[in-house]
Write a structure and sequence with these properties.
The complex is a heterodimer of chains A (about 1100) and B (about 170). Chain A is mostly helical and about 1100 residues long. In chain A, about 70% of the residues lie in helices and about 0% in strands. Chain A has a two-stranded antiparallel ribbon with strand order 2-3. The radius of gyration of chain A is 37 Å and the shape is flat. The two termini of chain A are about 35 Å apart. By secondary structure, chain B is mainly beta. The chains are: A mainly alpha (about 1100), B mainly beta (about 170). Strand 1 of chain A pairs antiparallel with strand 11 of chain B, so a sheet runs across the interface. Chain A: It is found in: Cytoplasm; Nucleus. Chain A: Keywords: Cytoplasm, Nucleus, Protein transport, Transport.
Chain lengths: ~1100, ~170
């Protein structure tokens, strides 16, 4: 470049200043001043020329280093260059990167590129207060124009240093630069490629303008850190056909040989970077490979695998070396590579890869590796996290990646025959290691044994992976489980009364968890099918009794049956073992006990029959536990075991929770099972004991609620609705009678405060609530009667127990659930009665609580009191919302004829009672907040006219909360507020456009006492909402709702809107942005033939317009 | 059938839950496993409100026990107890009565109006400054105040105030 002499002398001066500063720092002469000089140089605007001059001319390495650093900082600081500047500048960086100016500057150059790439990848960029639009453009141009060039520079840099590094016996300066180059290549491959995919994933390429950072929801990774790399066809040459990978592999191979030399070792940065890059290449996927049936990708993977195999094979030698002190990192990277390969291939391809270069398949290697790791785990004390833990998890993830069937990808979880043996080997070692761990931990006096559910779900991921492996070879693994299980049961019997059974109990506990996972899937409320792998695998024997799953299930059922014998129970069946049994029976029953399609009866109950019948045909053998086979007797056994846990394990809350919430719920989930349940003596005894006997009152009260629900649900198994209703009456009648009698006692006030009475009342309310939650059309009548019988008693109890929060809350919750179940079925007269009752309840509650202050010395008791209040209010809001639903869904017969209750008035009245109790402070409780806004938005949407009738205090409270809600974190809350605003504004606009008052004075604004004019509500909300949509962060999902609220607000306040628009335009300094904004505002209200009406069509047009508008302007209005 | 023992055990006790009219006593026994958060419990002979319940086992295959954290309803002190869950705990009889506040005397007593028109003059004001000022301030503002007196195991204390509108 030509420079004028003037410039030149200035550049020389700068260079001298920097050189001087560098040397004074080196010599510790006046370092503060020198640092200041360098700092101001680094921060000076556009120092590129000076830097370039220094780099090219200075003899002093330190000065060159400072200059390179200054370029880096400045370039990141001042992203805008003219095109010419950019070219010169990048040419400079390229030269630096390729080592023209020596190794130091080369390192800086590569480092600079690394920072540049990271700056442009939005997820790691720093905040720069530049328009978002600008960031996008940078990102796109980076990906399309520069990324590949940078990669090549880094690759060439690394290549050029290869010989120097490999020829030297110790670390040379090039090592550092070479490491940086490899790191840069890795970082570029980590780029979130959006634009180079031939539009295949167009949605991913579209930028979200509504929030600052792009979420990670696009990540394809299944469960581990393994991300798929898809840079697109443009990278084929660079990465695949250039021989680049073979260079990398041989470079690392050569490096390995030098690990004994000084300066190189397994974990030196150069080796680590090289391995990471190799692992990253294993995740390459997509159209970077030609479409040749995957042949090219297979070759690519094979090439990598042949390099990687030395890291992990032979497994025994590798693990021995690690145990005797070698670093585990190479072995773990090998596991990571296998995981990556498993993620991008099918099991068959995966297995085949290795076969072409060795005598065994990849699955066999995976299995051998896993076995080796498990052996180490078994021997070592599994207390702390060691390499074998990490390796086990990585390898388990690899198996999962291979075995989890992915519907869309057409990948099947089935393994080739050889692979099945490999899986079976692994599985048997898994079980062995788990048993070892169980027996080791059995006697540890771990006082804080986790609650069963917590511990199962913590292990769940691991157990699910085990199950996948076990299911890959059921003909081997299930008989193995059966033998191991039976062995331990036999051991228990032999040692009964002689030896301490704890170790065996813990082993059985562990086995039940594993077996439960292998045999059945978690239903999550649905009826889970027999796992596909179990259905489809060919099992040699045709007879049901010999099917391995049947044999194993029968073994466990027989063992569980022994818990019914008192002596056996006392000596063997500990609470913890029973927990595992209850959990297992729940899981197993959902899948195998009386599977649904056997009877034609429930063809209408929503199951996908075709699909199920098909899958069931393939596993006829498993129908042995069906309704017409052993099903009934097994069901009876399960009920007996459940009852045993409730009766003979007093105070075992966790066990009883499993029985109530899992086991019994699983039994009544399907109607065909209920039909058999209600016919069983054992079920009848349980129901009778529950209704009439004292014993089950000692269950935890929430468990009693669940039990009541279960028993009422089972009434659906009665032959007709009358019988079902009678079943419920018989079950609950005694309980309601007790409450009615108690509430009519003369000395109630005294008696009611006794702890034993409080306990009885609480338990009964919980039971009533459980029954109410089980309301179905078939039992609705009986449950309505149950509730209406106690309505009056409820009000009496609310008075008597007004200071007893726990009881008040139960009273409210019962009413909430009862109204929820009943309201849509009630006839006019019944509705009036229920609504009247609810209003009295609300008034009574309010009169007890308005103006009440709790006094206590204890701050924690005061905060408990606040939480209690929150819970009450939430219940009251739910009650109002439930009443509202009557106006939406109504199944009563006389809804049109008779003059019904005016629900809207009632609910508004209720809201006025509740609102004074709700403070903004209480709205910090997220659930209360949602409930409140969902009720509010519903009311404003359905009955906007009622707002005009609210008194001033309630009105301003409602608006205050709306404003609060618009700025809430919770998208749903904002959405509900927007809906409420839309309703209010559109109501007002429609009313006023036909000459009515609408919201009248409230919309117009008013003068306050000091004569200050305050804006009307729509003006206020128009300002707020405009600011929100233009400048704040929010979810893209809210745009439509915001449009729906904005349109009527604009129509209500057109003059203000014009003014606000003009102000916005005036504020723009940049003339290009100014005119873009003006045009965008113009088309926001004019394009798509937008009119001044509030009909569906117009709302839709405005949604479109607003969307375009925001995409156009938010890019430069918002600064990040 | 294999369930006969269960049935026998259940029909052993054919109570029909009565017993609501026994005389008031200071405490009642209740199985530890049935005591919930927000309920009451006696710990170290003090009536407490339960603010935390957790269960654990004595050894992996042993029986459940409950760990209670309670707060003394009068002193506000935190107390803890561990009880096997099938054993009984004492639950205190906690009574709360509303009175209208008539007067606050110089010597630290309150004068209360009972439901049947008598006065109750034996209750001391709390010594804690904060509580004291909440009661005194409200009274001084001329509000009509109802106070709630909590009593249990022979002690009593004001536990809540309620403003029922300006004094007529």
């Amino acid at each position: 470049m030509q420079r004028s002499p003037n410039d030149l002398s200035q550049l020389q001066a700068t260079m001298r200043a920097i050189e001087l500063a560098c040397s004074s720092i080196q010599m510790m002469v006046n370092p503060a001043e020198a640092e200041a000089t360098i700092l101001s140089f680094c921060q000076s605007p556009q120092p590129y020329q000076a830097c370039q001059y220094i780099i090219e001319n200075s003899q002093m390495p330190n000065a060159r280093f400072q200059a390179a650093t200054a370029i880096r900082d400045a370039a990141i600081r001042e992203l805008e260059f003219s095109a010419a500047e950019k070219e010169t500048f990048l040419a400079e960086v390229k030269q630096a990167t390729l080592g023209i100016h020596g190794a130091d500057v080369q390192f800086i150059g590569i480092n600079f590129l690394e920072s540049l790439v990271s700056e442009f990848s939005l997820s790691t960029s720093t905040t720069m207060v530049l328009p978002t639009e600008f960031h996008d453009q940078c990102q796109k141009s980076m990906e399309l124009e520069y990324l590949k060039a940078f990669y090549c520079w880094a690759r060439d840099a690394a290549l050029s240093m290869t010989n120097k590094i490999l020829d030297s016996d110790s670390a040379v300066p090039e090592t550092k630069a070479s490491t940086a180059a490899l790191r840069l290549m890795l970082q570029i491959l980590n780029w979130d490629f959006r634009y180079s995919k031939n539009g295949v994933e167009g949605a991913k390429g579209r930028k979200n303008v509504f929030s600052a950072r792009v979420g990670n929801d696009n990540n394809l990774s299944r469960r581990s850190e393994c991300t798929v790399v898809q840079p697109g066809p443009a990278w084929h040459e660079v990465l695949i056909s250039s021989g680049h990978i073979s260079w990398l592999l041989s470079f690392y191979r050569a490096l390995r040989k030098k690990f004994s030399c000084e300066g190189f070792w397994l974990d030196c940065p150069l080796a680590v970077s090289a391995r990471k890059l190799i692992v990253q290449f294993c995740s390459l996927k997509g159209d970077i490979f030609h479409s040749d049936n995957g042949q090219m990708q297979e070759n690519h993977l094979l090439q990598l695998l042949s390099g990687i195999i030395e890291w992990v094979n032979p497994p025994e030698a590798v693990s021995k070396a690690i145990e005797s002190g070698k670093s585990e990192s190479e072995m773990l990277d090998g596991c990571r590579a296998l995981l990556s390969i498993a993620t991008v291939t099918t099991p068959v391809v995966f297995d085949q890869l290795l076969k072409s270069i060795s005598s065994f398949g990849t699955l066999t290697l995976l299995s051998a590796l896993m076995c080796e790791v498990l052996k180490v785990l078994i021997v070592s004390n599994a207390e702390e996290e060691t390499w074998s833990w990490v390796a086990r998890d990585l390898l388990l993830d690899t198996w999962t990646a291979l075995l989890v069937p992915i519907e869309s990808g057409g990948k099947t979880g089935l393994l080739p025959a050889e692979g099945r043996n490999a899986a079976a080997n692994v599985f048997s070692l898994i079980v062995e290691s788990e048993l070892k761990a169980a027996s080791a931990s059995a006697c540890s006096d771990d006082v804080d044994t986790d609650y069963f559910q917590a511990s199962v779900s913590a292990m769940d991921e691991r157990l699910s992976s085990y199950a996948l492996i076990g299911r890959a070879a059921i003909d081997i693994t299930i008989p193995l489980l059966t033998n191991l299980f039976n062995e331990r049961v036999a051991r228990l019997h032999q040692g009964r009364g002689i030896t301490d059974p704890t170790v065996t109990l813990e082993e059985l506990y562990s086995m039940l968890l594993i077996i439960g996972h292998v045999l059945a899937d978690e239903g999550d409320g649905e009826t889970p099918l027999v796992p596909k792998a179990i259905q489809t695998q060919h099992v040699a024997s045709g007879e049901s009794e010999k099917h391995p799953v049947v044999v194993l299930s029968s073994s466990i059922l027989n063992f569980a049956k022994q818990s019914l014998d008192p002596e056996m129970r006392a000596s063997i069946f500990s609470p913890r073992l029973m927990e595992a049994i209850a959990w297992f029976l729940a899981r197993w029953s959902s899948t195998y006990l009386m599977p649904p399609e056997e009877t034609g009866e429930n063809s209408g109950s929503g199951y996908d029959n075709n699909h199920m019948v098909q899958s069931l045909c393939s596993s006829k053998a498993l129908l042995i536990f069906g309704e017409h086979n052993q099903g009934k007797s097994v069901l009876d056994l399960v009920v007996h075991i459940a009852t045993t846990t409730l009766v003979f394990y007093p105070g075992e809350k966790d066990l009883q929770a499993l029985t109530c919430y899992h086991l019994l719920h699983a039994l009544v989930r399907r109607r065909n099972v209920c039909v058999h349940l209600v016919a069983l003596d054992s079920w009848h005894h349980l129901a009778n004991a529950f209704a009439n006997e004292r014993l089950l009152f000692t269950l935890y009260s929430a468990h009693q609620r669940s039990l009541a629900q279960t028993l009422v649900v089972s009434a659906s198994g009665m032959r007709n609705p009358d019988a079902s209703n009678q079943y419920v009456r018989d079950l609950m009648g005694h309980m309601t009678n007790y409450l009615v009698e108690l509430s009519s006692k003369n000395d109630l006030k005294i008696v009611a405060q006794q702890p034993d009475v409080i306990l009885s009342v609480s338990c009964l309310l919980e039971r009533l609530r459980g029954a109410a939650r089980a309301t179905e059309p078939r039992t609705q009548k009986a449950i309505y009667e149950m509730g209406s019988t106690v309505m009056n008693s409820i009000l009496i109890f609310l008075e008597v127990y007004k200071h007893e929060f726990a009881v008040v809350y139960l009273l409210l919750k019962f009413v909430v659930d009862w109204v929820d179940g009943q309201i849509i079925y009630l006839e006019a007269q019944e509705t009036a009665g229920v609504v009247n009752f609810c209003m009295r309840l609300l008034q009574l509650y309010s009169s007890h609580n308005i103006g009440k202050i709790s006094l206590s010395l204890s701050s924690s008791l005061l905060s408990e009191a606040k939480t209690e209040k929150y819970k009450d209010l939430r219940a009251l809001l739910q009650l109002l919302a439930n009443l509202c639903s009557k106006d939406l869904v109504d199944f009563s017969s006389d809804s049109t004829e008779t003059p019904g209750t005016n629900i809207s008035q009632v609910v508004y009245f209720g809201l006025c009672i509740v609102i004074p109790l709700i403070s903004l402070d209480l709205l910090k409780y997220p659930k209360l907040c949602r409930d409140f806004f969902s009720l509010l938005s519903h009311l404003l949407e359905v009955y906007p006219e009622m707002v005009a009738q609210l008194n001033d205090e309630a009105f301003s409270h409602v608006l205050g909360t709306l404003d609060f809600g618009l700025h809430h974190q919770d998208t749903e809350v904002v959405d509900m507020c927007l809906r409420a605003l839309k309703a209010l504004a559109s109501y007002h606009y429609k009313e006023t456009s036909v000459g009515k008052v609408g919201l009248g004075a409230r919309a117009a604004g008013s003068k306050d006492q000091s004569g200050q004019m305050s804006e009307g509500i729509f003006s206020q909300f128009l300002r707020t909402l405009l600011h929100l949509v233009l400048f704040e962060d929010y979810s893209i999902d809210l745009v439509s709702a915001a449009a729906d609220a904005l349109l009527p607000l604009i129509l209500c306040e057109q003059a203000l809107y014009q003014r606000l628009g003009n102000e916005l335009i005036e504020r723009q300094v940049n003339p290009a942005f100014k005119s873009r904004l003006a045009n965008a505002l113009q088309s926001l209200t004019s394009s798509n033939q937008l009119s001044f009406t509030l009909d569906r069509m117009n709302y839709q047009r405005f949604r479109k317009n607003l969307n375009h508008f925001l995409v156009e302007v938010r890019g430069f209005l918002r600064m990040i | 059938g294999f369930g006969s023992s269960v049935e026998a055990a259940m029909s052993d006790e054919e109570h029909h839950f009565e017993g609501a009219d026994s005389g008031a006593s200071l405490t009642y026994p209740q199985q530890a496993g049935t005591i919930r958060k927000n309920g009451y419990i006696v710990i170290k002979n003090r009536p407490c409100k339960v603010v935390e319940v957790s269960t654990s086992k004595t050894g992996k295959h042993g029986h459940a026990k409950c760990h209670f954290v309670g707060i003394d309803i009068f002193s506000g002190k935190k107390l803890e107890d561990i009880v096997p869950s099938s054993h009984n705990c004492d639950v205190p009889h906690v009574n709360r009565t509303d009175y209208q506040l008539i007067d606050i005397s110089e010597d630290g007593f309150v004068s209360l109006l009972t439901e049947n028109g008598n006065t109750k003059d034996d209750l001391r004001l709390p010594t804690d400054d904060n509580l004291l000022s909440q009661i005194k301030d409200g009274f001084a503002e001329g509000k009509d105040l109802v106070v709630t007196i909590m009593s249990s195991m022979g002690e009593e204390q004001i536990c809540a105030l309620k403003d029922i509108g300006p004094k007529s």
